[in-house]
Structures are given as structure tokens and as C-alpha cells.
Amino acid sequence: MIPLISVFAAFSFVLMMFNLPLPGGTTGHALGVTIATIVIGPAGSILAISIALAIQALFFGDGGITTLGANCFNMAIVGSLVAYVTYRMIASGAAITSRRRLVAAAIAGYLATNAAAFFAAVEFGIQPLLFRDARGVPLYAPYTLGVAIPAMMIGHLAIAGVAEAAIAAGLVAYLQVADPTLLQNTSGLTPDSAAAHPQVSQKSLRKLWITVSLFLLLTPLGVFTAGRAWGEWSASEFSNAEGRARIAASSQNQPAPAEVPLGLQRLSTLWTAPIPAYAPPFVRSPSLGYMLSAMFGVGLVMSLSLAVQSFLQRRRGAGQPA
Amino acid sequence: MRRNRAISSTLVGLTRALGHALVSEHVARQPGLLQALDPRVRVVGLLALVLAVTLSRRISVVLAMFCAAILIALLSRVSLATLVTRVWLVVLLFTGVIVLPALFLTPGDAVFTTPGGVLRITAQGATTALLLIARVETAVTFTTLLVLTTPWMHVLKALRAFHVPQEVVMMLAMTHRYVFLLAETASQMFESRQSRTVGVLDSATQRRVTTRTAGVLLSKSVELSNDVFLAMQSRGFRGDVKILSEFRMRAWDYVGLMAFLAAGGFAVWMGRS
């Protein structure tokens, strides 16, 4: 997989430099995340685009190093996942050479680019709320959500999304004619596509499960060692003396505010998590409760993924006459 | 006459990227302050300074670090002309456009109002705009200094020394290698297409040409990755990566490391709001 991901990272990097003329006289740059997802799957695409962004930031100095994490999240992770889900849902059951795949790729490209841009806009937009000095000077991005979202979205809805849609559909059209096997991987059509593209082996899957279980077992350590992760205070901890002393001790002896911070109070009444403070009420031991909550969280994620997988398999089964 | 603008500007972009890399290789071989330090010290030190710039909340501190960056550049024989064209102007233009509306949109005390009171610049707006530009200029200058004075393979080896997983380091190395190959292949394809083109192509045809070029490049890339994998296998690759590491820290390197970290820490301390 390493050479495939590397070469795809290089390919998306070069593709980002392509100027694509768009209807209406403008030109735009594509991201390449959609075609990467379609050809090598979402996991490979997340890695490949992240590597491409890292090279861009580190070697060409085109993106900030400190924003690399956010960029990878927005473009590689959000972009790949949105592209994958959209493409699979629209193209499900269609033949490799079907025109529906072109439409699916175009819509996937458009949505993936705009989803990534939307996440970036929200990240920009919340910065003036979080970081400003005493005079009200925003210390990082200066625009609020009301400005950042339209500013980011207009360009992406009108230009970048169209460029990505055009290049994704164009490339799928090209591959349908020139090299249809490359479209097999995410087509959901042939179960034996593993032969063409190496899948995750059972051995490495087992390793993954062992690691996940180890982490699950280790979660109570968080309860034993730190008491409370810094910043993870509940509103009630601000109001009792013991809780306030603990917050002060972990904040370099800065005293905690006497009042419960208004925002925290508001948020804690607004959002009541299904499992309050990580522990179901019937479990007395906090560490056991914490561990159970962790297992519940992981279980929730796993069952969601399994549900999506079985949904896709069922769609595939329905789309193919026996 | 504007001819096939998209294709030619893609060509220019590809050529420029290749050119930038050549400049880096050249500067990295010159004797200089940064070049004399262990690559690991350079990576940690300059990244610490980037972090310090990001965390400083005072313009004066960020500007002082900008001056430090210029000094380091001069001592490392990085020409200011390179920095001006590659970093400062580009960042000024790019970030400038982004922060320009902030002058007017940031709420605060008005320092200048246009006749009629349509637009007013606030002190807070001006400060945030200046802070943002100064910060981005300085951080990108430090990153560029690292890249210009350190061959890419050394940056990667340094990353490996910090326990970045070897698969990631290997992917970074291979990607970097193939970026140049694919960029060159792409620019050759565009060049040959352009040399066979008479007259002006309409937008739809240009789009088709670009997409098809990308398609051929994609096929070539996949073929290349298969070839590389077979070549690796035939040379005995079994999934684990070995990288030679012959870096050795000398007294001078420790001094440099301390200086970088002290400067970074001092800047964060001075830059508290």
C-alpha cells in the first residue's frame, strides 16, 4: 500500500497545481480528494491527501505548519468521507461504465469540497469568540461565523466545488474508457476486488482489535492519575469548595472563578448527554463506569459503521440480480 | 493575446515548483549558520520559533522575531531576494486580501472614518490585521528557512529521530520523489499538447484537455506505483523500513538548540497579553 498511497499523494499534489477552466471564464483548482477516494478508497485517500498536505506545508511552505492538523482534518478526513459516502450512495449498484457514476463523482466532488470549506469556515469563525485580548482585538482569525461562512462558502460553492466536480467526473469518464479496473475498488460490485487491490489482512485487523481493547482497558487510568483532565470541569465543580481547590491546583494556582462561568452553565443545561458525566447512575465505581462508557462509545461507533456497511451490502445485493 | 491561459498558467506553475526545489538544493549546500547545525536541531529549533510566533500576542514581539528571522537568513546565506519573492510578497498579497475587510468589520474604537461615515477603521481592526500579517510572514519565513537550508532527506531523517512512524516518513520521502517525476511528466504533456495547438482553444476544450491529461497522469501514477512495489519486493522489501541515521550531536548543536528554545520561550513570555 505504501507505494500506492505515496504515488497518489504525489498525484493529488500535482493535480492541485492544474488550472481548470470553468464555465463562465474563471479557472479553479481541484483538490483531488474525490478521485483519490474513488480509486483507492477513503482510508487510503485520507492518508494520501494528508501526506500531500504535509509536503505542501513542510517542503513548499504553502500551508502553515501549525494549521496542518486542521487542514488534514478538513480536506483529507472530511473531504474523503463525504466523497466516499456520496459516491457510494449515488453510484450504488450502477455498472462500472454507467453514466450514473459520472454524476455520483461530480456530486461527491462538489459536496466534499464544500463540506471541507464549511468546516474550515466554522474553525475560522469561532476563533474571534475564543481568542481575543482585553481590548477585544481578535488574536487569530478576525472574522465571526457570520462573515467567515459566507466568505468561504461563496468561493467554494461557485468555483472550487465546480472544479473538483468537473475533474472528478472527467477522470471517472476517462477511467471508464481507459482503465475501468481502477474504478472497481469502491464500486461495491465485485467482492473479489481484493485481488486487484490489497485489502487489510486479518492479521493486522486482529492487531487493531487488540490495541483498541487495550486502550479500552486503560481508560480508567485517566480516573486514577489526573483526577480530572484539565478543562473537563463540570458546572457543579465550580460551586463546591473541593472542586474549586482542584481546579486551582491544576491551573498553576490560579483561583477558579467564584461564579460558574455563564457559558458553561448555559451549555450544561442545554446539552444533557445520554450518559451524564460518563457514568451510568447504577454503576457505583467511577472507574468501572468510565470504562463502560468508553466501551459504550466505541461500541456505538462500531455498530454505526457495521450498520452503514450492512446497508451498503444490502443495496449491493438488491442492485445485482442473482 | 491571451492564448490558452489555463494550460499555460498550469505549465508556469509546474515549472516554478520545480525551480523552487532546485534553489533549495543549492542553498542547502552553502556554508552558513543554520547549515552548520544538526538537522534535528534545525527542525526542532525553527518549529519552536514558529510555535512561539503563533503563541505571541504582541505585535512588537512578533516583529522582533521577524528581525531575528532576517538575521538568521543573512547568516545562513539565504538571499533576501529569494525571501522577498518567495515569501514576503506572496504572503503579503494573500494574507493582505484576507485581512483587509477586518480593518472595517472588527467592532471597536474608530480611528478613521471615511467622509459620509460609510466605512470606519477601528483600532482593534488595524491591530488584528497587522498582528495576523506579521505573524504569518514571520512563521512562513522560519519554515522557508528550514526548507531552504535543509535537504528534504535530512528533514525526514530528523522526523524519524523524533519517532514519527517510519511508514509515514517513507511515504513522505516517496511522495516527494514522485511529485517531481509526476510534475515533470505533467508539464511535458502540457508542453507537447501546446506545441501541437494552433489558435485558441475554447474553454470547454481546454477543460477537456486538462482533464484528459490528469487522467493519463493518473493511469501513469498507478502503473508507477505497481512497478515501484514490484521493484521493492524484488529487492527484498518485507514491510519494514530501514533508514540510515548518521546524525551526531556536537557541543555546537546543543548550544544552538538551547538558543532556539530560549528564544522561543522568551518570545512566548514577552508576548503574553
Key terms for this structure?
heterodimer; A: 322 residues; mainly alpha; two-stranded antiparallel ribbon; 66% helix; globular; B: 273 residues; 9 helices; 2 strands; flat
What does this protein structure show overall?
- The complex is a heterodimer of chains A (322) and B (273).
- In chain A, helix 4 runs antiparallel to helix 5.
- Chain A is globular, with a radius of gyration of 24 Å.
- Chain A starts with a helix and ends with a helix.
- Chain A is mainly α and 322 residues long.
- About 13% of the residues of chain A have low confidence.
- In chain B, 74% of the residues lie in helices and 3% in strands.
- Chain B is built from nine helices and two strands.
- Chain B has a two-stranded antiparallel sheet with strand order 1-2.
- In chain B, a hairpin with a 6-residue loop joins strand 1 and strand 2.
- The longest helix of chain B has 32 residues.
- The radius of gyration of chain B is 23 Å and the shape is flat.
- The model of chain B has no long low-confidence stretch (mean pLDDT 83).
What layout of secondary structure does this protein have?
The complex is a heterodimer of chains A (322) and B (273).
Chain A: H1 2-16, E1 20-21, E2 27-28, H2 33-58, H3 68-91, H4 99-130, H5 145-178, H6 202-225, H7 235-239, H8 241-250, H9 262-270, H10 286-319
Antiparallel strand pairs in A: 1-2
Helix pairs in contact in A: 1-2, 2-3, 2-4, 3-4, 4-5, 6-10
Chain B: H1 5-28, H2 39-55, H3 59-75, H4 80-105, E1 110-113, E2 120-122, H5 123-149, H6 152-161, H7 166-195, H8 203-234, H9 251-270
Antiparallel strand pairs in B: 1-2
Biggest pleated-sheet summary of chain A? 2 strands, antiparallel
Round the Cα radius of gyration of chain B to an integer and report it.
Answer: 23 Å
The structure class of chain A reads mainly alpha
Q: Would you list the SSEs of chain B in sequence order as H and E?
A: HHHHEEHHHHH
* Pattern of helices and strands of chain A: HEEHHHHHHHHH
Mean pLDDT of chain B, as a whole number?
83
Give me the count of strands of chain B.
2
Number of DSSP strands of chain A?
Answer: 2
Q: How do the strands of the widest beta sheet of chain A line up side by side?
A: 1-2
- Strand composition percent of chain B: under 5%
Overall, the morphology of chain B is flat
Q: In terms of structural class, how would the helical and strand content of chain B be classed?
A: mainly alpha
* Assembly of the depicted chains: heterodimer
Low-confidence stretches of chain B: none
Binned, the helix content of chain B reads: over 70%
Number of helical segments with 4 or more residues of chain B = 9
How does the major sheet of chain B shape up?
2 strands, antiparallel
Return residue spans of chain A where pLDDT drops below 50 for at least 5 consecutive residues: 192-198, 219-233, 264-284
